[in-house]
Structures are given as structure tokens and as C-alpha cells.
Amino acid sequence: MDTLVSINNLTKTYQRGPEKVEVLHGINLDIAKGDFVALMGPSGSGKTTLLNLIGGLDNPSGGEISIEGERIDRMSSGQLSQWRSRHVGFVFQFYNLMPALSAQKNVELPLLLTPLNGAQRKRNAEIALTLVGLADRGKHRPNELSGGQQQRVAIARAIVSDPTLLICDEPTGDLDRHAAEEILNLLQLLNREHGKTIVMVTHDPKAAEYATHTLHLDKGTLVEQQSHAA
């Protein structure tokens, strides 16, 4: 399979008061197109930092990150913002939906940055909501939806622009087991049947089993890679 994400000797250091804290130490990693990777590790291991760097939400202190051969570690904040809008969809633990907007209008938000007109945005949002099983919930506001349904809306919003990469940070962390399984089944469907490349941070070993690979981080170092049977 073709490589989508290529990471070489990646480091990240934060300044905390008078001292520097190195969160990631020389990470080397390749993620193939169409892969579904779970990132696991104890609190403070650097998994969310690594996820944010892959998604272009932050810049590394050293090393290289290439996405489809494009060096995002060399981009300015403005260039990264434009790159993210074209190539990355984000799913967070707490949905981050706009409470005053309907599900459909929430899904349309990323499309406001595109040349699409209102009718085209509406159509694309309807397609995305259908894909996540919420075709009949487009007019509902977030407070009229369950937690699992809100996360489905968030996933629809993440995929409506057909991104290259789907970045998920604890997408089931605020859900009960039944709702969590529905979300994980949906992510697996997007990966297997729609070819989406997914990188997901999770603390839940059962959630990681839905991925094709699990990467374990500890103290900023990649300590183990594990493949799962299809």
C-alpha cells in the first residue's frame, strides 16, 4: 500500500516556566493509505501531541512530517490552516457542535470555506448525514440528539469535505458502551468501505480492536506496534 503519512525523527518540546519538556523523542512512523491506526499510551505519553502534529494543529520542534509527500512541518500557520481545510477531518471527544445550528447546518460548516453554493452545501451535508445514519435528523439541533447521534453529526461534518485523513481524539470517551460501539462500527465502515485513512487516540483497548493497527507510546517514545486480524 502507498504511504500516506511519513514521520522521521519527530520531536516536540514545550517550554514550561524556566525548563523545557520534551514530549516526543525521535518518532519514526509510516501510515499507509487506507489504514486505521489506534494510538494508545498512558496519560502524558505524547499520543495527543502526536495526533495534533499529524493533523497539522501544531508544528514539531524537530524532524519531518510528510502527508502524501507534502512536508507539513515546513508550513506556516496560515499554510497549515489552508492545508487542514482541504485534507483533514477532525472528530473530538465532546463533539464541538454549534448548539444554535441544526445538524445539517453543523455539517455544512467546513463547506463555507469552499466555492460551493448553498444548494450544493446542503446536498453534500445530506449525503454525509445519510452515510452516518442520520438522514432523518438533519433539522434537529444538538440538544435534541443523543450523545451518540451528536458524535455521528460530528463525523458527518468531518467527512463532508472528503478529506484525505480523519483524525479522531477519544471519539468514544464521552459515550456509553452501546453508543461507543456504534461509533466504532461507523469508523470501521468509513475505513473499510470508503477507504478513509483514520488515526485515533483512545484509552480503551476494546476501541483499539476496531483499528487495523495499534501504536503504543510511552514517555514520548513509540514502544510497540501491533496489527489486528481483519
UniProtKB/TrEMBL annotation:
GO cellular component terms given for this protein: plasma membrane; transmembrane transporter complex
SMART domains membership: AAA
Record family assignment: Belongs to the ABC transporter superfamily. Macrolide exporter (TC 3.A.1.122) family.
Native species: Lysobacter antibioticus
The ABC transporter domain, residue ranges: 5-230
Pfam families associated with the record: ABC_tran
Gene Ontology molecular function, alphabetical: ATP binding; ATP hydrolysis activity; transmembrane transporter activity
UniProtKB keywords: ATP-binding, Nucleotide-binding, Transport
The name this protein goes by in its record: ABC transporter family protein
Alphabetical list of InterPro entries matching this protein: AAA+_ATPase, ABC_transporter-like_ATP-bd, ABC_transporter-like_CS, ABC_transpr_LolD-like, MacB-like_ATP-bd, P-loop_NTPase
Domain of life: Bacteria
CDD domains: ABC_MJ0796_LolCDE_FtsE
